[in-house]
Write a structure and sequence with these properties.
Structural class: alpha/beta
Cofactor: NAD(+)
Largest sheet: 7 strands, parallel
Oligomer: single chain
EC number: 4.2.1.46
Catalytic activity: dTDP-alpha-D-glucose = dTDP-4-dehydro-6-deoxy-alpha-D-glucose + H2O
Helix content: 40-55%
InterPro entries: dTDP_Gluc_deHydtase, NAD(P)-bd_dom, NAD(P)-bd_dom_sf
Number of helices: 15
Bound molecules: nicotinamide-adenine-dinucleotide, 2'deoxy-thymidine-5'-diphospho-alpha-D-glucose
Mean pLDDT: 91
Protein name: dTDP-glucose 4,6-dehydratase
Length: 412
């Protein structure tokens, strides 16, 4: 089976491709425009893999997409390409509408025309050039299905479409109404609606997944977990928005990759599956867990040349407020600062993933504590990857996003 994956040079797309290729589950065509978030270095060794092809294409470019479908003839599409960072969407929403809404509509149209062109005879030639017409046992659809019947369009979306979940409310199910808060979430909600409309109106065989916050290796350090790990190591402030009491439901990216593959293979056409880690944590709990893990794995503390950080650590250790001994001795924790909150910041997300667990048998393999520890270790072990992504463009973003956030209540 050959899968066209959009956004495969990003955080989740690259994890998905590494997952599929390491297990030889499918051939992959990676369609990615390589925006600031796309990084071919997150796909080590794949250049030499005959089952992997890269196409530097923007999903807003219809002609280029048509060529890619014509030349590669995929059996399925997994659509991850998107602008994905909420803070960027607040500072510049237009590109979110362009890529996430218009880009998705473009891809849907090209996929629809392509799907209609596929053979509809049970013994018709396969989708890939040279294919025999024998169904790949790993491809979706029942035995004897035609190439057209086996085709799938899998749209990868987010729990943010459901909006702000009250503290005592039950977790989001697939029936929770949409109430997106940020421009990012609204653009993803719009794209989900388009995908459902293309199924209902044109019969495009779609599956949709809505997932909670991912973490793990190769995540671009503008997102909470890698940002905090790298700032802590460098002795820089750890900027917690507002009171840090916002709750996210964390899932290891490799568990997400496995869930996506499960849904592509076995998901019911037209159906949505929520994916979550069953690991609700406040942001402050996450940042404190990172500090504890770093104190174990890198006890030497933050970069010693940051005199300011050393002063803050000393001041923290001598504070009269109650910290336990381990916290008092933790040089990273002293870097935590509360800063101006994100506008429209949702207080809580939580996913009820019982449908995918009961119907398709998937469940997360990583506990949050184990996954976080492995992730911290990964960033410690990959200084070259980190140095290269912390380029000029990254430094500019850090300036734009954090310079305008004043310290809200000082260090914790
Ligand atoms: P990311 O920002 O790390 O990667 C996005 C990728 O899309 C990049 O490689 C980028 O180059 C590419 N891209 C962006 N615009 C493009 C365009 N116009 N044409 C072609 N390629 C383009 O994002 P991610 O965190 O890997 O998220 C992937 C998908 O999963 C997104 O659709 C996101 O909404 C969804 N999602 C993310 C999370 C999360 O926690 N990160 C959780 C749930 C769902
Ligand atoms: O819920 C799924 C979503 O998770 C995905 O759809 C998005 O693509 C992905 O970016 C992520 O969105 P978040 O806004 O939740 O992720 P982020 O890492 O930016 O922030 C996580 C939480 O941490 C959020 O409550 C804001 C807070 N935060 C973030 C940063 C970058 C801080 O307190 N300080 C920070 O510096």
């Amino acid at each position: 089976m050959k899968i066209l994956i959009t956004g495969g040079a990003g955080f989740i797309g690259s994890a998905l491709i590494r997952h599929l290729r390491a297990r030889q589950l499918a051939e992959v065509v990676n369609v990615d425009a390589l925006t600031y978030a796309g990084n071919p270095e997150s796909l080590p060794g794949l250049d030499a893999d005959p089952g992997y092809r890269f196409e530097k294409v923007d999903i807003r470019d219809r002609e280029a997409l048509e060529r890619v479908f014509r030349e590669h003839r995929p059996d399925a599409v997994m659509h991850l390409a998107a602008e994905s960072h909420v803070d960027r969407s607040i500072l510049g929403p237009a590109v979110f509408v362009d890529t996430n809404v218009v880009g998705t509509q473009n891809l849907l149209e090209v996929a629809r025309e392509y799907a209609a062109s596929l053979d509809d005879r049970p013994d018709g030639p396969g989708t890939s050039p040279g294919a025999t017409g024998q169904a790949d046992p790993l491809s979706p659809g029942p035995a004897g299905a035609t190439p057209r019947e086996r085709f799938r369009f899998h749209h990868i979306s987010t729990d943010e479409v459901f909006g702000d979940l009250p503290p005592e409310a039950a977790a989001f199910t697939e029936a929770t109404p949409y109430a997106p808060s940020s421009p990012y979430a609204a653009s993803k909600a719009a794209s989900d609606h388009l995908v459902r409309a293309w199924h209902r109106t044109y019969g495009l065989p779609v599956v949709i997944t809505n997932c909670s916050n991912n973490y793990g290796p190769y995540q671009f350090p503008e997102k909470l977990i890698p940002l905090m790990i790298l700032n802590a190591l460098a002795g820089k402030p750890l900027p917690v928005y507002g009171d840090g009491g916002q709750i996210r439901d964390w899932l290891h990216v490799e568990d997400h990759a496995e869930a996506l593959w499960t849904v592509l293979q076995h998901g019911e056409i037209g159906r949505t599956y929520n994916i979550g880690g069953d690991a609700e944590r406040t942001n402050l709990e996450v940042v404190e867990a990172i500090c504890r893990t770093l104190a174990e794995l890198r006890p030497a503390g933050p970069a010693p040349d940051d005199a300011d950080a050393a002063d803050r650590a000393r001041a923290f250790a001598s504070e009269a407020v109650s910290h336990d001994d381990a916290d008092r001795a933790n040089p990273y924790r002293a870097l935590i600062q509360s800063v101006t909150d994100r506008p429209g910041h949702d207080r809580r997300y939580a996913i009820d993933s019982s449908r995918i667990q009961h119907e398709l048998g998937w469940r997360p393999a990583h506990s949050f504590e184990q996954g976080l520890r492995e992730t911290v270790q990964w960033y410690l072990d990959h200084p070259e990857w980190v140095a290269r992504v912390q380029s000029g463009a990254y430094r500019e973003w850090m300036e734009v996003n954090y310079a305008r956030r004043s310290k809200a209540t000082g260090s914790r």
